[in-house]
Amino acid sequence: MRVIASDIDGTLLRDFRPIAERVLRAVRACRDEGVEFIAVTGRPIRWLEPIRRQIPDLGTVICANGAVVYDCREDSVLEVHAIDPEDAAETIATLRRVWPGMLFGLETLEGLFVEPGFRTRSPAQAVPGPLSPVLARRPTVLKILCRAEGWAADDLLGAARLSLRGIAQPSHSGSRSGLLEIAATGLSKAVTLARHCERLGVGPADVVAFGDMPNDLEMLSWAGRGYAMADGHPEAVAAADFTAPAVDEDGVAVVLEELLALHRGGGASPGRALPDRATR
């Protein structure tokens, strides 16, 4: 284990509460052994401050489902994988034909732009108004947010996967939210994580990943050890080789403590490759 790659919401913490102290201790213990910790999240950069306060020396974070690599120490954007504005316009038009009442938002490096009536967790940070003039300015679009009231996110995702094939990459990070998150075609957390690990000289066999939702599927499949949270989405559990205890049971900490105990007992070192992948 040379890299720990962890989703944040539903994995490190629940419902924007603080990260449990046991989880923080386990992360610190792994970093003390020379293992790099990378948060890999759907969150935008502006939602990272609470995490940075709990992990003061947090370094690289992969944000917006792989669209941004951000250096917390330097407060700088290292890498961007944006959606072309023309593809964003086509995505919105395609989904609006399927769901005429769907509302849209654009998460960009310049800010969050939403159509009037679009519900967001941070309304004070959103700029309401029509999106066509925003796209005409060619902003750096990190992801498209789509909300259809009264629909389950799983139902939206199934239809969007068919409608947007070859146009954009839909996912979601909460089954009850009725919210889709759409990235550039072929982009995922795994794609950006793999590129970052390659620069570190780290292959998938040396990576332990944690996640709980459809936006974690590719990362859980790519990592040498992918752990889905026990209370995670069924697709995430199916994609992972292993299951961690639920987030409310400090599941990430439980797994990391076991891996460190194996190392300290003379087993595989966290700084070396883990054993071959196993079946759950």
Q: Tally the helices: what do you get?
A: 9
The percent range for strand residues is 15-25%
Mean pLDDT: 91
Number of strands: 14
Helicity level? 25-40%
Give the biggest beta sheet. 8 strands, mixed
The assigned structural class equals alpha/beta
- Cα end-to-end separation: 19 Å
Radius of gyration: 19 Å
Uncertain segments of ≥5 residues (pLDDT<50)? 269-280
User: Which strand order do you get reading across the main beta sheet?
Assistant: 5-4-3-2-1-12-13-14
What are the SSEs and their pairings?
Layout: E1 3-6, H1 21-32, E2 36-40, H2 49-54, E3 60-63, E4 68-71, E5 76-80, H3 85-98, E6 103-108, E7 111-114, E8 126-128, H4 132-136, E9 141-147, H5 153-163, E10 168-171, E11 179-184, H6 189-200, E12 207-211, H7 217-222, E13 225-229, H8 234-239, E14 242-244, H9 251-264
Parallel strand pairs: 1-2, 1-12, 2-3, 7-8, 12-13, 13-14
Antiparallel strand pairs: 3-4, 4-5, 6-7, 6-9, 9-11, 10-11
Helix pairs in contact: 1-9
Please describe what this structure looks like.
- With 280 residues, the protein is α/β, with parallel strands linked by helices.
- It contains nine helices and 14 strands.
- The chain is 31% helix and 23% strand.
- The strands form two sheets. Strands 5-4-3-2-1-12-13-14 form an eight-stranded mixed sheet.
- The two termini are 19 Å apart.
